Amino acid sequence: MKSAEKAGAHVTDEVKVMSAKESTDRILVRTSQGEAEAKYLVIAEGASSLLSNDLMGKHPAHWSAMGSAIEVATKAKPEPSMDIHLLSLDRRVLKAGPSFPLTGAVFPLRNSVILSAVGKSIPAAEMRTGLQRMIDQLPDSSASETVCKACFHPLPIVPRRRLRSARAIVIGDAAGLVSPFSGEGLSSALMSASLGSQAVVRACENDDKAELKRYEVEVRNKIVPRLTAASLVGPWLHWVVRHFGHERLMRNFGRQERLVDACAGFSGGELSLSDYAWRALPFLPFMLRSVKNEN
Question: What is the pTM of this model?
Answer without folding.
Answer: 0.77
